[in-house]
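Appendix B: complex inputs.
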Amino acid sequence: MNDDSPVLTLDGITKLFPGVRALAGVSLALRAGEVTALVGENGAGKSTIVKVLTGIYRPDGGEIRIDGKAVRFSSPQDAAAAGITAIHQETVLFDDLSVAENIWIGHAPRGRFGLIDRARAEREASEILERIGAGSLDPRARLRDLGIASKHLVAIARALSIEARVVVMDEPTAALSRKEIEELYELVERLKAEGRAILFISHKFDEIFRIADRYVVFRDGEPAGEGRIAEVEEGELVEMMVGRPMGDIFPPPSGELGEEILSVRGYSHPTEFDDISFTLRRGEILGFYGLVGAGRSELMQSLFGITRPSAGTVTLEGRPLVIRSPADAIAEGIVYVPEDRGGQGAITGLPIFRNVALPSMSRTARHGLVKTSEELALAREYTERLELRAASLDQRVGQLSGGNQQKVVIAKWLATRPSVIVLDEPTKGIDIGSKAAVHAFMRELASAGLAVVMVSSEIPEVLGMSDRVVVMREGRHAAMFDRGEATPASLVRAAAGIADAREAA
Amino acid sequence: MSMAGDGPIGAEARAGAPHGALGEGRRRHVPDRLHGPLRRLLGSWESLLLVVAVAIFVANTFASPYFLDPWNLSDATFNFTEKAMIGFAMALLIISGEIDLSVAAIVALASTMMGLAVQYGAGTPALVVIGLATGLACGAFNGLLVTRLGLPSIVATIGTMSLFRGIAYIVLGDKAFSGYPSSFSWFGQGYVGWVITVELVLFAVAAVIYGFVLHRSAFGRAVYAIGNNPVAALFSGVRVPRVKLVLFLLTGLMSGIAAICLTSRLGSTRPSIAFGWELEIVTMVVLGGVNILGGSGTIPGVVIAAFVMGLVTFGLGLLNVPGIVMSIFVGLLLIGVIALPRIVRQLIDSRTARRSAAKATVRADRGEARS
Amino acid sequence: MNPGERAPDSVSRHSGAASRLAETLRSRDALLALALVVLIGLVATRAPEFASPARLAAVFNDSAILIVLALGQMLVILSRCIDLSMAANLALVGMIVAMTNAAVPEVPIVVLALMAIALGAALGAINGLLVWKLDIPPIVVTLGTLTIFRGIIFLVSDGKWVNAHEMSPAFKSLPRTEFLGLPVLSWIAILAVLGALVLVNRTPFGRALYAVGGNPEAAVYTGIDVGRTRCLAFVAAGAVSGLCGYLWVSRYAVAYVDVAAGFELDVVAACVIGGISIAGGIGTVAGALMGALFLGTIKNALPVVDISPFWQLAISGTAIIVAVALNARSERRVGRIILRDAEKGA
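Resulting structure:
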C-alpha cells in the first residue's frame, strides 16, 4: 500500500512432470493490501502455481522470496508457517469434524498438558465467523450437515485463523449464489484493508475487473503479460491469454431441424425433480438453464439411467424406453457427457484407447474376445476427428490437459454412434480457445443429425448455442423459450423465480 | 446399438473427411504406442518376478540333491495348485477393487457339505455337484451383500468368513468325516500321465481360461475399468453390479473346486481345513503383481507367483525347515518384492531432485533467472 | 434458518442442549448400547444370574484384552489403515516376555510389562515405517508382518512351549490381583478406555487421525503429516498388542506359537460392530468398547444358555454382517434434496 515492495515473489519458477512442462519460468509478485488476478486458460499453469505457493509441489527451478528473502518450502506446513493459505474451489475440509475443528485443525489452541482447549477453540471460531459475516453458524455443527456456501465460509474462516499474509483464492465463486458472491467481495475488501496480499484466480472477467488491482496472465505455462487492471481492457486480456484476438461469436444454427426423436413426459423423482416434460428434434440443440442446484444434472443422469425416476415416460422415435442403467441408455443411443470429466467422464488411470473403446466393446469383439488392434483403430478414428493432442494413444488419460480429456470423453461417446447426446456444462473450466472449438463441434453434431441437449449455467453460451431453452428452478420446469425469444433478464427471472429481473442482477 | 445412430457422423469419419471447425487444423499424428512391445514387456513386474522364480529354482538345485527329482517336483505342485486356482478368481476380484477373505471358509464349508453328503451315501458325481453348488451359493451370498446392500467387501467377507466356517463347525463340531468313495480320490490324488497330476492339469486349464477372460474379453476390460474408477465405469455403460456379482460367484466357484481337490486329496474333512488360506492366496495374488487397491494386474503374474511360493515352500521343506518358519520367507518376499521398486524409485527421485536443485542454484548465481 | 445455524442467543442454550441430547440418543453408539442391554436381557431370561453385577464384571474382565486391542485397532482404522498383525505381535511379545520370566524370574513384573509395551511398539513401528516411508498399502504390510512375526516366535522358542510351572507366581498373578473389587486386568481395560478418550478427543494427534481418515488429501493441505500420523497409530497399536501379549500369557499361564491365532479378525470385528468405519474418519471409543463387549458377551453367554460353543463363530459372523449393514445404512449420504416439499417430508 505505501511501499511497493512485494510481500511474496515467485521468480522464474519452473515445474516439470513426465512429458509435460507445466510451468516454464513464470513470475508473480504479490503486494500487501492488493488483489492480484491470475488469468489464463485451462492448462496454463494456474493450479500448478497455487500448489507451488502452498508447498505441495517443489519447483524444479526458480526461487520463492518472502519479504525479499529466498525461502524453500519442503512441505505444506512450511508454506502455512510462512503465512500462505489457500481457498480452493472444492472445499478441502473434513465432513465428520465440527466447524470449529475444521477451522482449527493443525493449529488448535492448547490448554493444560498440551491438550486441546475445546472451549477456547469454539469461542475463537465464533469470533472469526462473526468477522466474516457468518456469525450465525454454530461452531459445534458437523460440517457434513452444512450447505456448500456455508462450507466455503468455513474454509475462509480457516484461512483467517492462520493469520495469513498471503491469501490465494482459486475460483472461489464457482458454487456461490449472487448474494453470496457480493458478500465474498466485501470480505476481500476487508482482507485488503487488513494488509493481506491476495491472489485471485478466476476466469470470470466481471469479477476480475471488479475487485483486482493488478493482473498476471499465464499461457501454456509461460508468462504472457502483467500490469495494472486500470490500464487494460478485457479484449487485451483475452488476447494475452489466447495469443490472438477473439470475438464472442457462436456458430450459427443450420436452420434445418429434423423430426421429433425424443419425448419426455411427466418425468419425476422423489427428491430431485418433478413433472418434467420436453421434446427433442434431430439437429436441435436444446439448452437447459438454471441456477446451481436446480436439478438439471440430476434430471439428465436419471434419463441416462444413473438414478431411478418415480414416474414419467421416455419415448425414442415413438418407442417407449425402459432405462435402468447407463448400459441400457447407451444401447438405445442416448449418451451423457458428465460435468465432472476427471471423476465421471474418463477413467484417468487407463490409456486413451481403452477409454474410447470401453462402451463400444460389442463392436471391437468377436465371439466375446476383444482385439486390441480393433480398439486402437476405433480410438485412432475418433481422436483424429477431434484433433486430440497426446504423446500416444496408450498414454494415460490422467496425464492430458482438461480440454484434451474432454475430447477423449466426447470421442468415446461418438464412437457409440448415438442419436441423442447430453452435454453437462461442456465448457466449464475450459479455456476460451477450446470453448470455441467445443461450441463449433456441438453445432457440427447437430447439423449432422444428432439431437443435442446442453446443460449450461453461462448465459451467453445458453443464448448463443440453443435452438430452444428450458429453464429449471428447484427441480421444476420454470419456462421454455425459442431462439431469439429469451433475454438474459428473462432467463434469470425464470431461474430465480422473481418478478423483477433487476433484483437478481 | 440403435440403427438411428448409425448416421452422418460415422459416415463422415469413415469417408476420411477433413477436420471440422476445430480451430486451426494443426494435423498432428498421434502414434498408437510410445514404446514397442519388447520394451513394455521387459519393464514389467512379471519379468522381475520371473527372474526371482528362476533364481529360487537355481538356488534350490544347489541346496538339495532331492530337488530335481520329477516325482518330488510333482508332489511339490500340491503346495500351490489348489490355492492358485482360487487365486485366479481372487486376482480378478482384487483388480476390480474388492476382496474376498472368506474363500478359505467356503472351502471348509463346501468340504463339510460333501462330507455330510457322503454320510447319506452320495456318489462322486453328486459330491462334485454339492461342492460346486456350495461354493456358488456362498459366492452369491457375498456378492449380494456387496452389490445389493453396498457393504464394503473387506468387512463383509470378514463376517461371512466367520459365518461359513461357523456353519461348518455347527455341522461337524470337532469330529471328522471320512469314508469318501474311492473314485472321488481321482481329483486330488490322480495322475493324468507320468508325473502330471490331475490338479496340475486343472490349474493349467484354469490359468488359460482366466487369462483369456481377463486379458482378451469384454468382461476383463470391464473388470479393469471398475477397478480404476467404478463411477466412470458405470457412466461408461459398464454393468458394475452385475460384473461384481459374477466375480464373487467365481471366487465361490473356485473355492468349491479347490474344496473338491483338497478333500479328495486328504480323504477326510474337518471344519478347520484350509485355515489361513485366504491370507496365503492374497499374498500369492499381490506377489503376482496385482495392485491390492485395484486397477492392475495380470494372470501370468499370478501363475509365476504361484510357482515362486511353491518353490520356496518345497525347497525349504526339503531342508527340513518347519512350515511356520517358511512363512517368514513368504512374508519377507511379499514385502520385499513390493518395497524394492519403491526404494529404487525414491533413490532415483532424490538424485534428480538434487541435480535440478543444483542447476537452479547455478542459474540463480549466474543471474539467468527469467522474470 | 439453514442447517447448522444457531437460533438467537436466548433460545440457543436450551434448544442446543436439548437437540444435542436427542441427537446422542439417536446415535449409533446409543443403539449399540441398547442392543447390548437387550442381549444381556435375553440371556437373563434363560439364566437370571447372568445379569448380576458379579457375572457382568466377569464378562467385562474376560473381554478386557479384546477391549484394549480394539482400542488400538481403532486408532489405525480411523486413519484409513488396517493392522492384521496385532495378534501375531501379541503372541511374539508374549513369548519373549514369558521366556524372559522363565529364565530370569527375578526381573520385576513392572519391568516385564514395560518391556512388553516397548517391544510391541517397536514391532508396530516396523508396520508404521513401511506404510509411511515406502507407501505400501497397510493390508499388504500387515499381511507380511503377520506371518513374519509368527515365524519368529518359532525361531525364538524353538517350537517349545512355556508352561505354567516355568512362570514365576508374580508373573501369573498380576492380572488376577484384585484392587478395589476388580482384577488388575479389568483396571487396565478401564484405564485404556479413559486414555483413549483423552487421546482421541483432546489431543492434536487424535483429531489428526479423524482428519487423515476422513479426507487424506485435505489433511495434507492443512499441514498434517499424514504418513507420520499413520505411523504413530501403528506404533500405538503395536504397543497395546505388546502389553496384551504379557496379559494373555500370564492370564492363560502358557505361551506357544499359536497363541491368539486368528484373533486379529476378532479385533477388527469388534471395531466394525462398534460402528468404526473401515473407510476411516468415523468411530468412537465408546463404539469400540461396546463392540468388544458385544463379542465378549456372546462368547460368555453361549454356555449359559446351553448353546454349544461351536455356534460362537457363526453367531459372531452374523453379528458382524448385521453391524456392517447398519453402518452402511447410516453412512449413506442422502441424495440431493432439491424439491422443497420433498425436504419437508424427508
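The first helix of chain A runs from residue 46 to 53.
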